[in-house]
Amino acid sequence: MRPTTEADLAEAIAAATAPLLVRGGGTRTIGQAVGDVLETGGLTGVALYEPGALTLVVRAGTPVAEVERVLAADRQRLAFEVPDLRGLLGREGVSTIGGVVAANASGPRRVQVGAARDALLGVRFVDGSGTVIKNGGRVMKNVTGYDLVKLLAGSRGTLGVLTEVSFKVQALPEAEATLVIGGLGDEAGLAALRRALGSPFDISGAARHSGQSLIRVEGMAGSVAYRLDRLRALVGGDVKVAEAAVSAALWRDVRDVALFHDKPGEVWRIVTLSTAAAEIAGRLAGEALWDCGGGLIWLRLDHGRGAEVAAAVAGRGHATRVRGDGGPVFPPEAPEVALLAAGLRAKFDPRGILNAGLMG
């Protein structure tokens, strides 16, 4: 099924008698869901764009590339830096903006501006009974009652099928540059990232891989030059500077986890304490890419090591298997969280037909 209007989508869900596998472009789906495929790619188009108000309202099936083109024409962007995981997951197809929100997909700039959910102003969606629900609007701090905007972001279609999303967008900066720091081991290299993030110099990216630590700053050209100078003295090590397009290419690779493209093995996304990042990766002895100052680890391992990952991360975060077969994909929920999640699913999808089993 590929409805082209919100009304058709609501009708299709209300009439469903079996589970539905909700899919945008299918470029970032993980987990095990079953059912008849319900595609949102027919719900396309920009409903409203007000560059002066930094506000965008767009239908959920609109390709991310189209959204980025519209914004770039007015020198604006989605602040949260949408990752493209097709190379990592071996997928083809077109990433949709609704899929981005459903996965709360966010890139390296999260350390500065937050995740996709933090840029969301409002959503429209159809719940598991076929009811159209609207929450939020076109300005920040407009939520009354339950904040369904934040709830839908990251729910992966298990609570409702998004039809429209609205964002606060961001002006493109005048300049960007990246400090590329070599000559440090992982512990020291991650410590340099933490020092930078703890400084007053407004870091928009802090990552490490392949023996190098990367620290990005963006903004007015004079401000970028000043902060680079101060950060050089702060972090130490063998420091070089990448600017403009060269800097942007470095962060596309971090954003898209390009380090693991065309390499075999499982890939895990581990969220943890930045101070524990080096120890966890060292204990598992995999190839690592650290983002968010070390608080996010992308780790490539041989297949079948899920139990070791869980043990290494226990009590210090959670791990999600984003590539590879066998065993659970998502970490187990604490009993209190599981009870809350079950209550939400019972409220918004009482028949249990939306992406059934995806996150279970």
Describe the model.
The protein has 360 residues and is α+β, with helices and mostly antiparallel strands. It folds into 3 domains: 6-171 and 339-348, Uridine Diphospho-n-acetylenolpyruvylglucosamine Reductase, domain 3, CATH 3.30.465.10; 175-255, ACT domain (Alpha-Beta Plaits, 2-Layer Sandwich); 258-323, Alpha-Beta Plaits, CATH 3.30.70. Helix content is 31%, strand content 26%. It has 13 helices and 17 strands. The strands form 5 sheets. Strands 3-4-8-6-7 form a 5-stranded antiparallel beta sheet. A 4-stranded antiparallel beta sheet has the order 11-12-10-13, with helices on both faces. The radius of gyration is 21 Å and the shape is globular. The mean pLDDT is 93.
Brief descriptors of the model:
single chain, alpha+beta, Uridine Diphospho-n-acetylenolpyruvylglucosamine Reductase, domain 3, Alpha-Beta Plaits, 3 domains, 4-stranded antiparallel beta sheet, 13 helices
